[in-house]
Amino acid sequence: MTGIGVLRLPRDVRLGFGQRHAVPALATGFGSRIAVVADPFLAATPEFREIVAAMEAAGARTLVVTDVPAELPVPAVVAAADTVRDFAPDVIVGYGGGSALDAAKVVALLTSHPGPVDAYYGENAVPGPVVPLIAVPTTAGTGSEVTPVAVVSDPGREMKVGISSPWLIPTIAIVDPELTLAAPRGVTTHSGIDAFVHAVESFTAAPLDIGHDAVIPVFVGRNDLTDAVSLQAAGLIFRALPRVLDEPGDREARADMAHGSLLAGMAFGAAGTHLSHAIQYPVGALTHTPHGLGTGALLPYVLQACRDVVPDRLAQLGQALGLDAGGDLADRAQSAVDAVADLCARIGLPVSLTELGVTPAYRDRIVELALQSRRLIGISPVPADVQVVGAIVDAAIAGDRAALRSVPTHP
User: Fold this and answer.
1) CATH number of 12-180
2) What predicted TM-score, i.e. pTM, was given to this entire model?
3) What one-character-per-residue DSSP string does 242-291 give?
4) Which residues form the Alcohol dehydrogenase iron-type/glycerol dehydrogenase GldA domain (predicted)?
5) pLDDT tens for each residue of 326-342
């Protein structure tokens, strides 16, 4: 117990097959002008068309915006926001994967407050409420439907940039596992393992001393309200993700993945994530590989580096994953790290960064950029300095976790 608990959630969260049918009535409850920010590939699906048709049948005027690329380059998001601002919506509906939901968050922000968008980079820079947002995820992965974070690609920077503020948390989250049934295998894999990373890193993140101030960091580290949620999410995803990949139509496994992803989003939306994410941001920018692919590939190395610092946490994680509770604390912690590595291998993730195209020549730049992610580095369970982060990157490039069993964990 840390003695502190923090959760920040939408006012209404709904999970279950068919819950998307509530979206039209919920949206029109805010007013008659509804802007929808949607993944362009999903806007032509019957499920999406049915939602829009029902809103219009209820007398709403709708604006559907789909021209926002997956990596969310700032100019495209700003253009979408200009269009939506002119429409003057009463509510915005975000529909799609993490990129679509993040785009809807930024559009809601720029519809409510003047630009430029870079004025809101970092933490707690959003000055107040944004247009009400209903988030409808179609993947089980990012948890963006319940988090205070949106990530964009700024052409002037080498990495993606986060906007983090409680004002960005959607008003309503509608999680319908049926919408994930058609997700391609790659999307299911990468989004699913990223959700697992969210669960594990939120459970192992160092707690911050937040005092009693009204404004606190967006990410406060593990705490008394997120711990149980993180562990439940990790267990659900650990068991369900291989099943979903083996049997994409397994509705029970899809429901467990949606449930686990939602819980992981609830947990990391307050606790935060740490080194797998900090290192992935430059790796993803350099190699143009999917976010979840990178965080998943890095997680076994990060946990190996953390083993001797948070063995109790890793042993508890192992229990949540269903591992044997026998052996001493160090053995149980190592078993948990090994089980995570086995999961990553089982679902086909690369065992080294070399397989993603990272060469030793990239090493120093990756370390330098990773250390710039201060909100992530600040809740690392190990002292995240050049030496420690460098050791993790070296091991991940070489594909050798054993090299991290003697990594220095104290300044």
Assistant:
1) 3.40.50.1970
2) 0.96
3) HHHHH-TT-HHHHHHHHHHHHHHHHHHHHH---HHHHHHHHHHHHHT--H
4) 10-177
5) 889 999 999 999 999 99
